[in-house]
C-alpha cells in the first residue's frame, strides 16, 4: 500500500504525451500571464483610505495617455490587428480592476486618448470612439471629464492644431475649455500649452466661470505639465498670476510625460516670486511609491501638481498605472498610483513559447519524414533481394 501512490503518479507521468505536455504548459502560461499576474498586482494595491464615504469625501480615478493604437502607423494585418487587440484588452482589463478597487465618484481623462486621433479620418475617429467606449465600459454610468492631448487634436511638432480637429473632439467628448462643477469641487480646463502666450480664450474662461471659483475644492486639469517648466516657456509670469491667482487651485493634474511625479512650489502664486526664469519647484518621483501619500496644499501661495503615468504598455515606460485621488471639502488630499503588471515580459514569453512550439512541430514532422523514408528504403532493399 505504501508504494501505490508513487506507482500511480509514475504511470500518469508516462501517459502524458508530448501533445498533452504542450497543451498543459501553454494553458498554464496563459493563466499565469492573463489572470494570476493581474490578480497578484490587484492584491498589492492599498485600500482606499475612506472607510465610510460622506458627502464631504470624493474619490477620483485618473486616467492618462491610454493612446489606443491607430490604423495608419501600425503594421498591416495580422500584426497590426493583434497589437491593437492586445493593447485594448490590457487597458480594459486593468481599468476594470482599478474601477472595482476604487469605486470612483468621478473619472478624469487627462488627454492622448488616441494615438492617431489628430490625423485620423472621420471613419477611423468613429472606430476609435467606439473602441474607447468598449474599453472603459465599466464607467458608463460614472461622471467623467475629458481633457484632450496633442495626439487627439494636434499641437506638437509638425502636427498642427486646427479648429476642425477641436470641433471633432468636442462633438464626440466635451468642450476643450471651461469649468465643471461636481459636488464640492470645481474642475478648470484651461488648455495651457507649451510656448503658448496668454490668449483671449484664457481670459474668457476666467470671465465666464462664476461660483465655480468659490467652491471648497478647485482643481486645474491640463494635459501638459505647468509647474516644472520655465516661466518664459509658458507665458510671461504676470499672465501666470492672471490665470492661477483668481482660481487659487488646490492642485494641478496633468499627464503627457507618461511618468508619475509630484511637483511642489511653495511660492509659485506669490508676487514675491517674480524674478528669474525658474519657479522654486521641487520634484518627487512617485515611481517607487506603493501606498497613499498625504499632500498639503495651501491654495494661497502653493502650487501642487500631480503628474499621472500612462496606463498603456505601448508607451514604452517600465511602469504603468492609474492615479487615485481622495479629497474632502476640508482640503485634505491623499494620492496613490495603482501600478499595473508589465506586459512586454508576457509577450516575450508567448513569443518564446511559440518558437519552441514551432521547433517541436518541425522536429516531429522531420522525424515522421525520416521514418517514412527509412521504411521506404527498407522495402526497396527487401524487394531488391527478392
Automatic annotation (TrEMBL):
GO terms for biological process: GPI anchor biosynthetic process. Keywords: Membrane, Transmembrane, Transmembrane helix. InterPro entries: Calcineurin-like_PHP (IPR004843), Metallo-depent_PP-like (IPR029052), PGAP5/Cdc1/Ted1 (IPR033308). The keyword Translocase does not apply. It comes from the Eukaryota. It is found in: Membrane. Residues 60-259 form the Calcineurin-like phosphoesterase domain. Pfam families: Metallophos. It is a multi-pass membrane protein. GO terms for molecular function: hydrolase activity. The chain crosses the membrane at residues 21-43, 344-366. The keyword Transmembrane applies. Its main location: membrane. One of its GO terms (cellular component) is endoplasmic reticulum. This is Calcineurin-like phosphoesterase domain-containing protein. It comes from Octopus bimaculoides (California two-spotted octopus). The lineage of its organism: Eukaryota, Metazoa, Spiralia, Lophotrochozoa, Mollusca.
